Structure formats: C-alpha cells, structure tokens
Amino acid sequence: MPPACRPGTAAVAAGVIGVAVVLALRGYARTVVASAAADAAPPLLGPRVRGWYRGVLAPFEDQLVVWGVRADLLTYAQLGVSLVAGAAFWAGWIFVAGWLTILAGTLDILDGGVARRNGAAGRRGALVDSVVDRYSEFATFLGLGAFFRGSWVLLAALSAWTALVRARLAFRALGGTPA
Q1: At what angle do helices 123-147 and 71-91 cross, to 10 degrees?
Q2: DSSP 36
Q3: Do the beta carbons of residue 79 and residue 133 sit within 8 Å?
Q4: Contacts from 92-101 at CB under 8 Å and sequence distance 24+?
Q5: Is there a contact between 114 and 65 (Cβ–Cβ < 8 Å)?
Q6: CATH fold of 61-173, please?
Q7: Can you tell me the distance from the alpha carbon of 170 to that of 179, in angstroms, rounded to the nearest whole number?
C-alpha cells in the first residue's frame, strides 16, 4: 500500500462528516417556521433552511454582541472576504474560494442578527448592507468569470449574477425588506 493511502484517516474523516450530516439533518427536521417568515422570504433558500442556519448562528450572534462587535464591521468584513474569494476564483483555487464564499454569506447573516440584537437595525444600515451585498456578489462572480474566461461558463456566471440582481430588485419592489 502506498504511503499516501491511509484508510484509517479516511474512515475517521468519513465518520466525522457522517455524524455532522446526521446532526444537521436532525436540527433541520426540528426547525419550526412561522408562516409569516415563510411568506416574506426571498426565493433562493427555503424558510426551513434559513431558520435552521439562523438557529445554528444564534449563539455566535450573542457572543458578538457581548464582545461589542458592530454590525458594520461584519458587513465590511463580508466585503473583504468576498474580494478574497473572487481573487481565489480568479487564481483557480475553487475549493478555497467556495469556502470563502460560504464564510462571506455567513458574515452577511450575522451582521443583520447583530444589528437587531443591538437595537441598531435601521434604514441606513439596511441600505449599506444591501449595497455591500451587491459589491460582494459582483466580486465573487467577477472572479468566477475570470477563471472561466473563454468558456461557456463565463456566460452562465454573468447570467446567474444578472438573474440574482433582478430577483433581488423584484423582491424589494414587491415590498420585501432590504437584504
């Protein structure tokens, strides 16, 4: 057996991933969604997934409030992480860029939760968050487009970004809250 092949390590990793998936699915199954939250949700993720993930992040929001972290800091950190994710996509580090994109999305969720818990949620913060979200998405899709330049995937990335912006504008025009 070559030295790079370590079945024990692979088995432990598979076990950890399996346990994480089972626990996540148990938490997801227990998530209760209020009907008002389901109606006001943007179409990208279902209300149960959002409710479950917000439940997972609630202790982090509490700790960030205790530490005195401002929501604006998390918003700008999201932009920074998205810029790095776009650069990672551009450089071809797809795995790293994917994880950075997930981190940026998590920071986006945390900033709103921290603002609400601090009593600092307002129109100005919602506007700043919305603008930073669009710049973050643009940076990520720009990196994807650069990585896939000369390929049909570039057109798909541009189409996805355009559809995302259009869906967000339509949602807000119909009375959705800024996000």
Answers
A1: 10
A2: H
A3: no
A4: 92/147, 94/147, 97/140, 97/143, 101/140
A5: yes
A6: Four Helix Bundle (Hemerythrin (Met), subunit A) (1.20.120)
A7: 13
Judged by DSSP in three states, 66 sits in: helix
pTM of the model: 0.69
With CA atoms as reference, report the closest residue to 128 among 68, 163, 78. Answer: 78
CB 11 within 8 A of CB 19: no
pLDDT tens readout for residues 101-152: 999 999 998 998 899 888 887 888 888 888 898 899 889 988 988 888 888 8
CA distance linking residue 111 with residue 77, whole number of Å: 10
Using alpha carbons, select from 62, 50, 172 the residue that is nearest to residue 117: 62
